[in-house]
Amino acid sequence: MDNLELWVGVEPTVSRVGDETMDQLVLGGFDRRPHDIDRLASTGAKAVRFPLLWERTAPGDLADADWRWGAERLARLAGHGLEPIVGLVHHGSGPFHTHLLDPGFADGVAAYARAVAERFPHLTMYTPVNEPLTTARFSALYGHWYPHARDEASFWRALLHQLRATVLAMAQIRKVNPGARLVQTEDLGHTSSTPALRYQADFENERRWLSLDLLLGRVDETHPLWGYLRWAGVDERELRWFAEHPCPPDIVGLNVYVTSERFLDERLHRYPPHTHGGNGRHRYADVEAVRVRGEGLGGPGERLREAHARYGLPLAITEVHLGCTREEQLRWLHETWRAAQAVRQEGADVRAVTAWAALGAFEWNSLLTRRSGHYESGLWDVQAPEPRPTALFGLARDLAAGRDPAHPVLRGPGWWRRGERLIFPAHGPVRVEKPAGPPLLITGGAGTLGRALARACEGRGLPYRQLSRRDLDIADPASVERALDEHRPWAVLNTAGYVRVDDAEADPRNERENALGPRLLARACAQSGVRLLTFSSGLVFGGRKSQPYVESDTPGPLNAYGRSKLAAERAVLETLPDALVVRTGALFGPRDGQNFAAHVRRELRAGRPVRAAGDQIVSPTFVPDLTHGVLDLLIDGAGGLWHLANAGAVSWAEFARMIARACGLDPLLVEEVPGSALGLPAPRPASSALASERGWLMPDLAPALARWSADVESAEREMLAAD
Questions:
Q1: Distance in angstroms (rounded) separating the CA atoms of residues 538 and 643
Q2: Domain final position from 372, 392, 421
Q3: Based on the structure, what is the number of domains in the chain?
Q4: Domain shared by 613 and 523, yes or no
Q5: SS3 193
Q6: Which end of the chain has fewer beta carbons closer than 10 Å to its terminal beta carbon, N or C?
Q7: Average of pLDDT values for 23-45?
Q8: What stretch of H or E contains 267?
Q9: Tens digits of per-residue pLDDT, 247-301?
Q10: Is residue 430 part of a domain?
Q11: Pick the catalytic residue: 257, 498, 549, 561?
C-alpha cells in the first residue's frame, strides 16, 4: 500500500474575545512572509490547509474584498505543486458585523464562498468552517469566545448556523467548480467515565459525531439525539433541512489531541475545584483521561477506526500538534503517523496526516482567552529573525519521503504513556511504559547545572547517565574514552568545570577544567560521532558595549575565568563544528542555596542589608528555563554559539531589588555600591549581558523570578513537612 500523504497547516485562528481579536497569522508572521509557502513546500507535503479567511479578506462589504494576499500565496502554492485545502472560517465569527448566533451568518459565509470560487476557480478542496462542533462549544456553551453564550439553546443554534453555512457554501462553490470537494474537520474526542456516569459519557460520545451526521443527512427520528435536540429547542424543520440537503464530506478530517479524551468522575474530592461541573442530575469532575484512566489514551488509531466503522468515508488526520517539549512533540507526531498507517493497512481509506501549527501557536494554553506571550513552536520556531527549523521539520520530511525516522528520542514513549501522566488516583488497571533509547551523558553531574539537567531529563522521559568527576574526568582522555565506550550516549552534556571566578585568577585548575577538558571532550565526541553540548559565559566579553552582547560580537575577556571559557569555545568549535556551545549568564535556581539569588533572599529575610554592584550589568538566568532551552536546541540539532539567558539585562543591585520584590521582602535593604567597593580579585566587565541574534528562546526575567520564588517556598514547605 502506498505511503500516507503528509499535509501541513498553519494555525490561522482570528479569535474574538469581547471586542478584541487575536490573529494567529499576525502573531506567527505568516501574514507578512510570502516565502513561508516555500518553507511548507520543503517538507515534501502534498497539500496545505490554507487560510483564506472571511474576516481577513472581506472584513466589511464583500464588494470591497482585498484578494491580493491570498492570490500571491496561492500562486506560490501552485508553483510548488501543493494542493491548497482552503479554509474560510476557523474558530472565528467572521467579520465584526456578524457572529455565530446571527441568523444571517450562514448566508454571509455562502456569499463569501461564492466570491472565493469565482476569484479562484481552480481551487478544488475546501473546509468552509473548521471544527463547527468544537467552536460551538467554546463560543456558545462554555462562553470562552464571542458571542460568549453559555446555554444549550445557543450551543445548538451556533452549531446549526455553522453547518448550514457549510452546506450553502459548498453549493455555491460547486456552481462555479462542480468538482469541488469538502474536507470537513472536527475535533474527535472521546469520553470515558465511572459506571455511575456512563449515561453522560454515552451522550457525549454520541454528540461528538453530530456535525458529521447532520452533514450526511442522517439525523431524523431514529437518531439517538433526536429527542434531545427537540428538547433543547431545535425546530424539527431545521433538522429535516439537513436530511433534505445532504452535503457528505469527501474527506472526514479528524483533529486528535491528547486533551480531546476526557474522563468523568462523581468523586469530587479526588479533583481540584476548577474541574467540577455537572448536568443537573450529577455533579462530577471533567478531567483529561490520560491523567486518571489506568489504560491511558485510546489514541488516534482508535478514533480513526471508530470513524471508519461509522462512515466508511475517506479519512485524514487534519491536525497533529502538541504544546510540549520537543521530544514529546516528535513522539506525538510519530505515534499518530504510525497509528494512521496501521489503520490504513487494516483497510480504511486513510489519506493523510497533517503536521499542524507548522509555525507554532500562541496563547492556546488559555484557549485564546488572554494574552501572556505564551508560544508553542511547531515545525519552525518563529522566535528568531527568520523561522528556525526544529526537529519536527526533519521528522515531517522523513515521513513525507517514506523514510524511517532515526532521531534517538523516538525510541522512548511520550509522557502520555509514562507513569508521571497519572496525577489523580488511577481508574482501572494501570498500563505505563518506561523511558527507553540511548542515553544522554551528563558530565559534572554533582554540580548545580548537572543536577538540573538530570531533573529535566527525568521529567522529559530522556534516558541519561549523570556522572560526577569521580566517574568521568573530562581532562583525562582515558577517562573520557571509557565513559563513551561504556554508556554509548547519543550526546554529551558537559556541565563540568571550574566555577569560582575570583579563585580562577591564581588556580591552575581553572585552565585544566575549563579549557583542556572541553577540548578533549570535543575530540572524543568527534571520533565517536556523538553530539556535544558545552557551556560558556558572558564573561568572555570585555563590557564596553552599551547593549547586550549577541553571538557575533567580538570577545575580549578581562579575567582568567573568561579567558579559559573563550579558549574552550574556540577549541570545541574548531574540533567539532556542529557542537552546541551555550553562553549564559548568572545562574539562579530553586535547589541551589549558593547562588546570588539565594544569598540575597537569605540575608534579607534575616533583616540584614545586602551590598551589590550598581555598575555591572548581567543577564540573570533561571536554571530550569536554561535546561529546557538547551535540551530543545540539542534535540533540534542546533550547533555553534548560542546565547541563552532570561530576557532582561540588569545590574547586580537591581537584580537584588527584583529578588526582594519577588519574595515580598524589603528592597530598601539592598545597598547599591560600585563594583570596585566589593574588593573582588577578578576584574569584571561593566556589562556581560547577553541577547541573541539567532533566536529568543528564554522567558523574561520578572516571571522567571516569580517562578523561582514560588519553587523555593514550595521546597521549604516540603522540607518542613518531611521533618
A1: 9
A2: 421
A3: 2
A4: yes
A5: strand
A6: C
A7: 97
A8: none
A9: 999 999 999 899 999 999 999 999 999 999 999 999 999 999 999 999 999 999 9
A10: no
A11: 561
| CATH code assigned at 123 | 3.20.20.80
Say yes or no: 9 and 153 in one domain. Answer: yes
Peptide bond between residue 147 and the one before it cis (omega within 30 degrees of 0): yes
Residues 12 and 102 in one domain: yes
Q: Chain-wide mean pLDDT for the chain? A: 95
User: Looking at the domain assignment, is residue 219 inside a domain?
Assistant: yes
d(CA 70, CA 76): 10
Distance (Å, whole) CA 539 – CA 489: 30
pLDDT per residue as tens digits for the range 676-705: 999 999 999 999 999 999 999 999 999 999
Here the CATH number for the domain that contains residue 683 is: 3.40.50.720
How far, in Å, CA of 644 to CA of 582, rounded? 7
- Do residues 567 and 696 both lie within one domain? yes
User: Helix or strand or coil: residue 98?
Assistant: coil
Say which DSSP state 104 is in. Answer: T
Which has the higher per-residue pLDDT, 470 or 112? 112
Q: Residue 280, Cβ neighbours under 10 Å: how many?
A: 5
Strand ranges in 538-618 using DSSP code E only, listed in sequence order: 580-584, 587-588, 610-613, 617-618
Of 421, 456, 488, which one is at a domain's C-terminal end? 421
Cβ distance 249 to 212 under 8 Å? yes
Beta-carbon contacts of residue 420 (< 8 Å; ≥ 6 apart) = 459
306 and 226 within one domain: yes
Q: What is the pLDDT of residue 613?
A: 95
Q: Print the domain residue range for 222.
A: 5-421
CB 641 within 8 A of CB 693: no
The burial of 478, by beta-carbon neighbours within 10 Å (0-12 exposed, 13-18 middle, 19 or more buried), is given as exposed
CB-hemisphere CA count at 13 Å for 99?
A: 16
What is the dihedral sign for C-alpha 56, 61, 62, 63?
A: negative
- Which whole-number Å values give the CA distances from 525 to 249, 473, 518, 578, in the listed order? 54, 15, 10, 11
Catalytic residue check, 112: no
The answer to whether residue 304 sits within a structural domain is yes
Exposure string of 542-578, with b = 16+ CB inside 10 Å and e = fewer, is bbebeebbeeebebebbbbbbbbbbbbbebbbebbee
Distance CA 150, CA 140 (A): 5
Q: Indicate if 389 and 459 belong to the same structural domain.
A: no
Alpha carbons 281 and 288: distance in angstroms, whole number: 22
| Predicted TM-score (pTM) above 0.85 | yes
Instruction: Please tell me the distance from the alpha carbon of residue 354 to that of residue 332, in angstroms, as a whole number.
Output: 12
Distance CA 96, CA 93 (A): 8
Which residue pairs, CB below 8 angstroms and at least 24 apart, start in 34-40? 34/72, 34/73, 34/76, 35/76, 36/10, 36/359, 36/387, 37/73, 37/76, 37/77, 37/80, 37/82, 38/76, 38/80, 39/358, 39/380, 39/387, 40/8, 40/10, 40/82, 40/358
Q: How far is CA 360 from the centre of its chain?
A: 7
> Domain check: are 334 and 469 in the same one?
no
Query: Between vectors from CA 149 to CA 143 and to CA 155, what angle results, nearest 5°?
Result: 100
Return the C-alpha cell found at 265: 468522575
Residue 348: is its pLDDT beyond 60?
A: yes
**Do both 343 and 257 map to the same domain?**
yes
Q: How far is CA 19 from CA 11, 27, 440, 562, 589, in A?
A: 21, 18, 49, 53, 41
pLDDT for the residue 717:
79
31 C-beta neighbours (distance < 10 Å), count: 18
HEC string of 377-393 equals CCCEECCCCCCEECHHH
Asked if the model's pLDDT at residue 434 lies above 90, the reply is yes
What's the confidence (pLDDT) of residue 718? 74
Q: Does residue 557 lie within any of the structural domains?
A: yes
CA-CA distance, 34 to 69, in Å (whole number)?
Answer: 9
Cell for 376? 508553542
Question: Cα–Cα distance between 111 and 88 in angstroms, integer?
Answer: 11
Q: Is the pLDDT of residue 1 over 50?
A: no
Question: Roughly what angle, to the nearest 10 degrees, separates helices 623-636 and 448-460?
Answer: 60
Residue 285: phi and psi, rounded to 5, are -90, 140
